[in-house]
Specification:
Elements (H helix, E strand, L loop, with lengths): L1 E6 L4 E7 L3 E6 L13 H4 L3 E6 L16 H14 L5 E6 L1 H12 L4 E7 L5 E2 L5 H4 L5 H19 L26 H12 L1 H12 L5 E3 L5 E3 L2 H8 L15 E2 L13 E5 L8 E2 L2 E2 L9 H7 L5 E5 L6 H4 L1 H13 L2
Parallel strand pairs: 3-4, 3-5, 5-6, 6-11, 11-14
Antiparallel strand pairs: 1-2, 2-4, 7-10, 8-9, 8-10, 12-13
Length: about 325
């Protein structure tokens, strides 16, 4: 595996590369970097030319400080393919990487072969992920990441209890999360160093504030943009955001993409965190297809050729359950 930097038509991108054959683009999520693929990349490189970039603002890629958008991040990936003279690539993305990969396939289907989306969203936001509302309020997220980035990473990846200052407003609980034994010491240090960067903190805020605009559906079926004051009102509601009457309303972040279709063969890999109905007795439900609420419905709606697979683990699939992921990902990609 080799580390490279390349100047594309848009920005300086850092990426990891290994293997030969058909190109396979791996796109990381938040709050990670291309490092998140280190457990699966060697096996994938036995079959593909694997390219794993750091998204704009993360890892060793350029931190422009500009507001982020899904279209911008997708165009960054397109510029990377162009710079590497790759006409078409399979694409797999986790979390935010899946959302960007979805946008890339939606706008440039001819540049994408097979598409794999791991624990992510397409057009709707799961209402229980309250950090999407929290990040819209100016100052809250900036203060949190500046003062608590290390505590957050240790809570998120190492299962440690977070000690927060009393005046910090955060959607992330302090209580230790059990069962987080997948993050080794070098990886933990990598993620600590990653989020310690001021540019990465700014990109983290911009992902959830700028690249994730929230819209609620009105009685006439149209979508109305939510303001920072709307999000603040839900977050500060007496009794907490979960008791606000609008909390469980459908939230769309991409009304412009509703009704559009992707014909590329697509694999959706999900965990109990985002699809609890897809599991029974801690095992994936056979032949499950996301449905039953606006968020779940939105996962299946855009795809003409959708394959689904559940993995019983936490959210960070490539590092928590690399073998289980490869068991689904390799047959899907190799069937091209």
């Amino acid at each position: 595996m080799h580390s490279h930097h390349i100047r594309t038509s848009r920005l300086n991108i850092h990426y990891l590369e290994a293997g030969h054959g058909e190109p396979l683009l791996l796109v990381h999520g938040w709050p990670q970097s291309s490092h998140c693929w280190h457990k699966v990349l060697p096996q994938l490189a036995q079959h593909f030319r694997v390219i794993a970039p750091d998204l704009r603002g993360f890892g060793l890629s350029e931190k422009s400080g500009l507001p982020l958008s899904r279209a911008q991040l997708a165009d960054d990936l397109l510029s990377l393919l162009d710079a590497l003279q790759i006409g078409r690539a399979h694409v797999a993305g986790h979390d935010w990487g899946g959302m960007v990969a979805f946008k890339l396939a939606l706008e440039h289907p001819q540049r994408v072969g097979r598409l794999a989306l791991l624990d992510c969203s397409t057009t709707h936001w799961p209402h229980w992920a309250a950090h999407g509302l929290w990040a819209k309020v100016p100052g809250w997220a900036e203060d949190y990441f500046a003062r608590c980035h290390a505590a957050f990473i240790r809570w998120c990846f190492a299962g440690e209890r977070a000690e927060y200052p009393g005046d910090v407003i955060t959607p992330f609980p302090a209580a230790a999360m059990p069962g987080l034994d997948w993050c080794d010491a070098p990886s933990l240090q990598h993620y600590l160093d990653n989020l310690a960067q001021a540019g990465t903190q700014a990109a983290s805020v911009s992902l959830y504030r700028d690249a994730l605009p929230f819209y609620r559906q009105t009685v006439d079926g149209s979508w109305q943009a939510m303001t920072a004051d709307d999000c603040r009102a839900i977050w500060l509601h007496e009794g907490g955001p979960f008791r606000h009457p609008d909390y469980r309303s459908a939230i769309c972040f991409a009304p412009e993409d509703l009704g559009r279709r992707i014909g590329n063969p697509t694999l959706l890999v999900y965990t109990p965190m985002l699809q609890p109905r897809g599991f029974r007795n801690s095992q994936p439900v056979p032949d499950y297809r996301p449905a039953g609420d606006p968020y779940s419905d939105s996962l299946a709606a855009p795809f003409a050729d959708l394959h689904c697979a559940g993995i019983a683990c936490g959210h960070f699939i490539p590092e928590e359950q690399p073998d289980a992921l490869l068991a689904h990902l390799l047959p899907f990609l190799l069937s091209a």
